[in-house]
Amino acid sequence: MYYLTTIEERVRVPPSMFGSKLDDAVLRILQERFERRIFKDVGMMLLVVKPKVSSDGVVIPGDGGAYYSVQFDALTFIPQVNEVYEAEVKEIVEFGAFASIGPFQGLLHVSQIGREKYFYDKKNKSLVSRAEKKSVKKGDSILVKVSTVSLKSTTTDTKIGLTMRPDGLGKTEWMTEAKVVKKEPKKKEQPG
Predict the structure, then answer these.
(1) pLDDT tier for residue 173 given thresholds of 50, 70 and 90
(2) Which among 101, 106, 103, 108 is positioned nearest to 87, based on CA atoms?
(3) Topology of domain 2-77, CATH
(4) Is pLDDT above 70 for 187?
């Protein structure tokens, strides 16, 4: 889920930036330090905005930089277990599909696509169910639920497990293919 978080941080402005406007220098430093990085508490920091310097600069003897207390807003994304996302399938592999949720990619294991068994179709590069003739391929839009999250310091080390097994999840067209079962009215028995 996306969050707008206010963060307070101490920022060192190096002497090379003393000629710049203070707000511009602080914003550039915060963007370089935080944007596109993952933090355990807040998830991935996507955007840093509105820095407010809340103190005079402090100079430490022997260090040419000035230190400021700064408050800023950050747009963050952190996936939570049981959240549902509309995702796009980015890649199909033998053991499942990788789908994008926010700035991350999660793994939809072949066993988590549906209740029936899915197989890797090497020729069409898709995952196919023989029983119901359903398939998942690159570019498909799917509705998934987050089943596991292991947030690490990089996107490649972060592991997110996805599932489509619960009712109401899957490809959009699967949900519109509701099966209609026609029931015959019961015939009344005539006394005979």
Answers:
(1) confident
(2) 101
(3) Dna Ligase; domain 1 (3.30.1490)
(4) no
